[in-house]
Design brief:
The protein is mostly helical. Helix content is 85%, strand content 0%.
Length: 252
């Protein structure tokens, strides 16, 4: 460390070199500079406040989306678990009207929504067993499954956007903090003490950390919810295929 400082001191002076030397000397001397959150809130610039407020709003919005999607997916999975055995029992007994009424009691279930659209078409098919009516039923099932999948994906694009942009917003705050430090150095002239540039350094570090804190949960939950939606989509496709197969068996 001593050799590095000596070499830096022997080279032409520059603001970056002066900043590095000041940081090293402060660390070795154990200076009592306060870089805590309280001092940071006192020293932060108006641009730093703008970055922090932006990240805070992004964090609040992402937490709201995460909480809302978690409740939605939980209700969807719970109602589907309750709906499937009841619907299967009614379909085995060829109780199409009863199964259709049952789907209306589980409106939050993705499977109930899909089967409802198919049963409505199949109720017409039971009186007209034409290939044209069967194609209409298949289209209704696919259309409803696609619409339900899009509904389940609502808000996930916002999580992806926040997860990808929050670190860059924090990086912008980092750059502003470093610029703030160099401005202080320029005002002081020469090699300033660590206390002069502590505010800018803390602003740079805290905005970077805050950006990561906002981004990481958003990315994690986006991946988790995306996998859940993919699983729901597979279940809806399988249910639609099974309903069509069931109706073909009833025709035979």
């Amino acid at each position: 460390m001593f050799l590095f400082v000596s070499l830096a001191a022997s080279s032409p002076a520059s603001p970056a070199t002066a900043l590095l030397i000041s940081l090293i000397q402060a660390a070795e001397a154990g200076s009592g500079v306060n870089l805590g959150i309280r001092q940071f809130l006192i020293d932060v610039s108006w641009t730093g406040w703008a970055v922090l407020i932006t990240l805070l709003l992004m964090s609040i919005y992402s937490m709201a989306v995460i909480f809302e999607r978690w409740l939605t997916f939980r209700a969807t999975a719970r109602q589907s678990r309750e709906f499937v055995p009841k619907a299967a029992e009614m379909l085995k007994g060829a109780q199409l009207d009863g199964a259709l009424r049952l789907t209306q009691d589980y409106r939050k279930s993705h499977l109930a929504v899909v089967i409802n659209s198919g049963l409505q078409e199949l109720a017409v098919v039971s009186g007209d067993k034409s290939a044209r009516q069967m194609r209409r039923a298949k289209r209704a099932l696919r259309r409803t499954a696609a619409m339900k999948t899009a509904e389940l994906r609502r808000g996930l694009s916002s999580l992806a956007t926040i997860g990808s942009t929050a670190p860059f917003v924090g990086l912008f705050g980092t750059v502003i903090g470093i610029i703030h430090s160099f401005e202080k150095m320029n005002e002081q002239g020469g090699a300033p003490g660590i206390a002069t540039i502590a505010g800018g350094i803390s602003e740079a570090l805290y905005t970077t950390a805050f950006g990561l804190v906002v981004a990481v949960p958003a990315v994690w939950m986006f991946n988790y919810f995306s996998n859940r939606v993919g699983g729901f989509a597979v279940e809806m496709k399988n249910s639609a295929d099974e309903l069509i197969d069931y109706f073909f068996q009833q025709q035979q």
